[in-house]
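[READ THE FOLD]
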Amino acid sequence: MSKQLEVNKLSVSFGKVNVINDISFSLAAGRIGCILGPSGCGKTTALRTIAGFQQPTKGYVLLGNKQISSPQKSLPPEKRNIGMVFQDFALFPNLTVADNIRFGLRNWTTDAQQKRIDELLELIGLKHLATAYSHQLSGGQQQRVALARAMAPKPDILLLDEPFSSMDIDLREQLAREVRNILKQENITAILVTHDQHEAFVMADEICVMHDGIIQQHDTGYNLYHKPANKFVADFIGQGVIITGEAIDTGKIKTELGIIEGSTPEGCQPGCKVDVLIRPDDVIHDDESNEQAIIIDKAFKGAEFLYTLRTRTGVEVLCLAPSHHNHQINESIGIRLDIDHLVVFKQ
């Protein structure tokens, strides 16, 4: 697949403060990427640099085969053929839904404008609201109009800056799924910036996890969860706890939860100290098990309970159990480990 976007050894500094440090990634045409990370990690600065609102200190950005950003020269944002969807949607309150979409088509003929507006209204399911104003729309409807307006002129890439941050959790994931389907139908290349991993998993084909201005891992959501590249990614993605252990043989690790089998880090000989990631789905509630743990906290998740458990050795782990297993805090339950994807880091 041809590269639509290429970010090469990009750095951005504000004075003496390095906000982005030598990041590189690419995105093929029609793919949806995501820059995911906590507040202050540099993800929004990366997006602003791609958009042309910030000039890099080092490195460059290519869109198609055209260089659009470098320390020597940056193409103005309005000449990059980039669409943007902002956190606050930025709809024009005095324009109808149709005219908000029309705004990006001012250089098109009237017939071409109307054809494109009709296509997009059909695509986002708001044809019946073409003459409505933004204050008459729900938050989700406003989001879809903002998306349609950004997509209208058929940009080379679409940038979405925390577009669901004002929504409640359930609506965020629903909209992320809807937006993904719309982008895929239009075959639009896009980058989402978010701090919410659930949005990233639902919407993106591939995800760059950022921390301290550095891309820690560029991978699929599945691999980020099951094969994290380092302890930051392991801790940031999903839920889990890290326990200490010791390699005692090839593929065997001694821990306070017992002997765990699986591949050990490269170069880790018997006696090597390691950290082992234990996910909630690795800990199975089993009434027949001799290994007991005390419930110190619980959270109802609908189909499941998320239990926080303390083992007899004092180790705390998380356990997902079907919600008909409704145990009380301070109650002791049987557990066993069932780890399909062992994640181990050398200390």
Observations:
- The domain at 3-235 is CATH 3.40.50.300 (Rossmann fold).
